Amino acid sequence: MLYKRVAILAIIMLMLINTACWDKIEIDDRGFIISMAIDIPEEERETGDVGRLRRYSITFGMPIVEKLVEKGGGGEKSFTLVTAEGNTIFDARNNLATRIDRRLFFDHAKIVIFGSEVFKDKSKFKELVDDLQRDYEINRKMFVGVVDGKAKDALMVDNQLNKLVMVYLSGIMENSQFNANVRSLYLDELIESLREGGRVLIPKIKPNKTEVKIAGAAIIDDFELKGWLGQEQNKYSLILEKGAKGGDVDFRYRDIIIPYQIYSARKAIKYNGIKEGKLDFTIRIRSEGRLREYVFGQHLMDKNKIDQLTSLVNKEIEKNCNHVIDMYQNKYKIDMLGIDDYMHKYYPKVWKVVEKNWDDYFCNANINVRSDSSIRRVGVVK
After folding, report:
1. What's the predicted TM-score (pTM) here?
2. β-strand 45-46 against 111-115: which pairing, if any?
3. pLDDT attached to residue 73
4. 303 has pLDDT over 90
């Protein structure tokens, strides 16, 4: 009896020790896709198969594992770019699979970049987003960006700081949590924003030969590209949308420019009712920060002077925020500030009245910005 128990226990132990993954694929046999750049070909060409067109040109970025594990690296590129065309993203992936000897693996994708041509036909952009949201292999936490031109150009940058340009791009976007000058957007955030209203701000990527700059944003409404935000407009738009962490506000005091570095900024919307036939709102921005510079040899440890400088900071923030609001109301006629969501949540009865013509009500609304800044630090000297 004891012998049988020992035998059964031994068999169970062997079964546990000798288990293996049924779908195991060696790492050398995987093609790790860490970036995708999606463009529109200059013309839709037939693939040679009846009824199949090449509607998309997708450039896939893959690391060269051998180069990554080598010490030194010799300054050689540690990734390769492969472009495949197809009728859909899935079709392009299948076409790519006919040219490489590795199993494509998307779980480690860092970034997907759209070329501006994608937005000229909103049905195509809808198709692309739908494909990305349905594919279980796609990493939902990869960043999203837009290039004013060809998306492929952003992956062809010969950057000296990081030869793996896709990691370089995603690293810049990760800095957004410390710097309000940089906007970041995850794929799942893009999908959610488009699902709710078809509008979103997507970070703008500006490539050149040796580096890229992520500054500004593409304004997407009803799945179409409506315009662009510049770097400063993007910074103050971020503050108005959800507050910010990091970034700076430059203001003039007498004949010098002083930078106010924002530690954190929070925004709160208040609906004041209807005044003179228009919806009236106040957006209050509370920020904390420090002064980065002043005049050498002059002290800042004076309450009256700090109060004076704080007032100038508030005026600068209000001026720039009002400029962004004016642009949304009069140039693009789009609410990108989340006021519609605020009304839907906190004033549902009013929202039912204005919902169908919200863009008109938004464009005619009185929106006042009030800044309440606090200078907490002036540096390590007085």
Report:
1. 0.84
2. unpaired
3. 46
4. no
